[in-house]
Design goal:
Elements: E1 7-8, H1 9-16, H2 20-28, E2 35-37, E3 40-43, H3 45-54, H4 93-97
Antiparallel strand pairs: 1-3, 2-3
Helix pairs in contact: 1-2
Length: about 100
């Protein structure tokens, strides 16, 4: 029995916040693995994760809040405190120039 959930091109585009044309380009260039079902493409979530992993600038373990399993928690989520900013970072840029 088939247990995998397939994503449409539209769903992939929405998830990674790009256009559907961009997703189709990735598929055409064979950067993103996809399965042709009729005239439509479907992407297995694991393949999307693998694609994104090959295009990251550094591993998730290098980010603050990264868990051992590679997942990350956004600062301020799930009770985690947001990191402190330098004193002048919260001031508008124009205000910092006048100091």
């Amino acid at each position: 029995m088939l247990t995998r959930r397939f994503l449409t091109v539209k769903e992939v585009a929405e998830l990674v916040q790009v256009s559907e044309a961009t997703v189709r380009h990735w598929i055409k260039q064979r950067d993103l693995r996809a399965i042709a079902l009729g005239r439509e493409w479907r992407v297995i979530p694991h393949d999307l994760e693998a694609f994104l992993g090959t295009h990251e600038t550094r591993s998730a373990a290098g980010f603050p809040g990264a868990a051992a399993d590679g997942t990350t928690a956004m600062p301020g989520s799930q009770g985690e405190a947001a990191p402190d900013l330098p004193a002048d970072a919260s001031e508008p840029q124009d205000a910092r120039r006048n100091h």
